[in-house]
Amino acid sequence: TVVDLTRLAEGEAAAETHAFDRDKPLAATDSQVVLGKGGGYVLSDLTGSTPKPISLDGGSAPKKATYANASWTLQPAGLLYTTAWSKKSGGRSSYTDIDPIAAGGGYGPAPFRVSGYVPYVAVNWKTDGSDGRAVIEYLRLSGKKLTWCTREWDTTTQLLAKKTSCKKVTKTSKSAAISAVRFGPTLGIMVKGAPKLWNGKKLKAVAKLKGYTLTFTGLGDPVAPLLRAQKVPAGAVYSADAKGKLTKLFDDFVGLESPTALDLTFGQLAGLDPRAGYQAWTRPVGPGGIAKPADEVLYVGGTAGLKATGSRLVQHSSKVLTLLDDGVPTATVNKVTALTDASGPYSLVTRSKQTYVLNSAGAVVAKPSKSGNKILAIFGSIAVEQNKARTSIIVRELTKQQGFPQTAMLPGAGGGWRISEAFVWGDNVVIGATYGIFHAAFVYNWRLHNWTTSAKDTVPVALGDGVAAVRDLTSGTYALWDLNHDYDRTRKGAKPIPGADITVAPSFDGESRFVYSTGTELKLIDLSNWDGTDLSGKTEPRVLGMVAPTRNEINTVWTLAVDASRPLAGGVLEIMDVTGTVIAQVNGTDGEDGSMRVRWDGTTTDGGVVADGSYTWRFSATGVSGGALVSINGDAATYGGSFTVYTAKVKVSKPKITGTAKVGGQLTVNPPWTPAGLAYTYQWAAAGVQIPGATSQTYTPTADDVGKTLTVQVTATSRRGVVVSQGSSASKRITG
Predict the structure, then answer these.
(1) Could you check whether the bond before residue 233 is cis, i.e. omega within 30 degrees of 0?
(2) Please, which residues bridge with residue 238 across strands?
(3) Cis omega before residue 287 (within 30°)?
(4) For residues 459 and 583, what is the distance between their CA atoms, to the nearest angstrom?
(5) How many CB atoms lie within 10 A of CB 392?
(6) At 110, is the secondary structure helix, strand, or coil?
(7) Residue 184: which of 128, 140, 229, 138 has the closest Cα?
(8) Which of 226-240, 286-300, 421-435 holds the top average pLDDT?
(9) What's the CA gap between 335 and 353, in Å, rounded?
């Protein structure tokens, strides 16, 4: 779609849409577009005339760099095809080939090779373009030296100047992040996150704005460099003069932005948006839909990934993974480079290019079974792994249940199809696969040990209970796919999702709801009546994971954490002694989000406190829909385990008073005594005389306390009846 910025007031009339079937636009101006077509490339002039094939000069890879990354530069002055060569896949390029293309897509001058890292390439008219003389410019980082180079190109005769002119721009680090954009006679260059201005002779730093992040911005041909200054949640656009001085032009957006990621559970929606270098947030989700933006909870720090599962949340920020349950941090994990998924108490992450599954404590519980393999998806304790060749999957179960692992060869692997992505929910594994420019999705049912259905010309983007969301490459839209049948665009339930933003993957809650973004709105869909059919989940709730302490100090509440694939209506926890006699029973509630936390305080049904020793536990639950809680493989199961109750010695130290020692201030005593869970009482005193009613952990001095020092007597009682008491050190004298 081409938008005429001078006609924005005309609304949709300012936009002109062109269809190119399945061809992918690779570069464009307001009058031309480069398209990928069946392994080749064509140039279209957007007038409806027949696209012209583009002729490329052949070239060999450098001896020291064999991984290629091709790109296009299309500007009014000309078309360039660039190939960046690197020593390893995904690595920084060390050579770049620049191939000028003649007008109409024909052969231009022979390509030329540039050594070093080339982060910016462009082609501009030397004057007004009437003489056909253009200038190819690029930035080159060789070692720590950044240079700006130009080479003239006569687009009429298709001759390149014999020599390239280069000038030193600056000295920086070998691995510096560099990007650039041209504003008329000025080149805006970002060097390690700092904006600079280059006029062809000197480099000027742009003035700093305290607390703001500056980035170059702007469309069209601004007369001066434009920069966007961002400070959560607002921003502003500034222009820069030749000396780097900034002049504010206008405020640029205050409020929310379109999400970049979504993850839906039964009780909450988690998301990311571009605020603050990726702002993480959650909003409650109930029968009335998604809560308003005013009710969202924001999470501190720029966030690279956010996943929600039941009451749990996993946040990836600055290589640190934070695990939360009901908003309370339970563990942190360092040196994490990517967060892929979370399901129940498990998280799928990448560390140093290796994939791992972590438990709720942040410990590694699974890694690839062979070198070069990669874990792609998890569903509770089910993990899906691909082999190094990307031709087969291995379905594993992390608690060592029978029937695993299973290995399945991808359909068409012998003909060149390769795995590109994977999702797992319940019995179904959905695999996205590619073969050249072709895409397809396949379903593997691990209970049946068989590939079942498929979807041609699609890319899977999300998975629920028996239904997947796919990007339909024929229509260019998102659609839903009933996994019981091969994908059919004419089938009920497969209609395009209206207005869906295909840059943001939708998400299922695993039961009956589905969320997607239009770019301006969040849409929550009822799957039980979608396009005249019922696509809601039908399976019974499955155990994604259970976490129970194996040792518990008597003063601490023993907690069983249950995570299920569907909402739970209720549960029963039974505690048995060594004879198998049930000595305590606790009802589990609050499982509407699929997570149930059942807490036992160490007392028996008759109110007594249990003795130290060995105990066992047994748990059962039912789903909101009535079905019993079943194992991860869908079978009926008994859930239980054993643990030990022990009593720790009470350790005390002299309490200290902290806070502001003046009238109206607040003083606090917080004794670091162990074990946790002791029952405390307090009695404050002024100059050794007890203060009536001052029996809380905190105390606010009054006028009667001026000139006196305060103390507090702290008494702790354990569940075993042990009582300890100690007075604090004195506070500073109270002032008025």
Answers:
(1) yes
(2) 227, 248
(3) no
(4) 54
(5) 16
(6) coil
(7) 128
(8) 421-435
(9) 11
The pair of three-digit structure tokens given for residue 1, joined into one six-digit string: 């779609």
The Cα-based distances of 207 to 32, 184, 211, 325 in angstroms read: 37, 20, 13, 44
pTM of the model: 0.71
Q: What is the DSSP letter of 129?
A: S
Cβ-Cβ contacts under 8 Å for 109 (sequence gap 6 or more): 100, 153, 158, 159, 160
Q: At residue 255, does pLDDT exceed 80?
A: no
| Contact call for residues 734 and 670 (beta carbons, < 8 A) | no
Structure tokens at 161: 């100047």
Query: Scanning the structure block, which residue is given the tokens 């695999």?
Result: 431
Residue 569, classed as helix, strand or coil, is: strand
Backbone Cα Rg of the chain? 32
pLDDT of residue 254 exceeding 70, the answer is: no
The token pair at 589 is 């509630």
Question: Distance of alpha carbon 107 from its chain centroid, rounded?
Answer: 43
| 116, burial (CB in 10 Å: exposed 0-12, middle 13-18, buried 19+) | middle
> What digits encode the pLDDT tens for the residues 463-519?
999 999 999 999 889 999 999 999 999 999 999 999 999 999 999 999 999 999 998
Q: Are strands 467-472 and 194-198 parallel, antiparallel or unpaired?
A: unpaired
Position 232 pLDDT exceeds 60: no
Nearest Cα to Cα of residue 262 among 439, 513, 432, 444: 513
Cβ neighbours for 574, distance < 8 A, ≥ 6 positions apart: 582, 584, 585, 617, 618, 619
- The single residue listed with the structure tokens 């040990």 is 449
Q: Which two tokens stand for residue 614?
A: 């060995």
Contact (CB, 8 A) for 208 and 200 = no
**pLDDT digits 0-9 by tens, 296-315:** 999 887 799 999 999 999 99
3 state DSSP class of 36: strand
- Within a 10 A sphere around the Cβ of 349, how many other Cβ atoms? 25
Query: What's the length of the chain?
Result: 736
Closest C-alpha among 332, 443, 337, 336 to residue 384: 443
CA distance 698 to 689: 17
Q: How many CB atoms are located within 10 Å of the residue 243 CB? A: 10
Cis amide leading into 111 (omega within 30): no
The answer to whether 139 touches 166, Cβ cutoff 8 Å, is no
Strands ordered across the beta sheet of 428-435: 418-425, 428-435, 438-445, 450-456
Q: What is the pLDDT of residue 352?
A: 87
Q: What is the mean pLDDT of the chain?
A: 92
The tokens for 148 are: 């700006």
pLDDT digits (tens, 9 = 90+) for 632-683: 999 988 899 999 999 999 999 999 999 999 999 999 999 989 999 999 999 9
CA gap 714, 706 in Å, rounded: 23
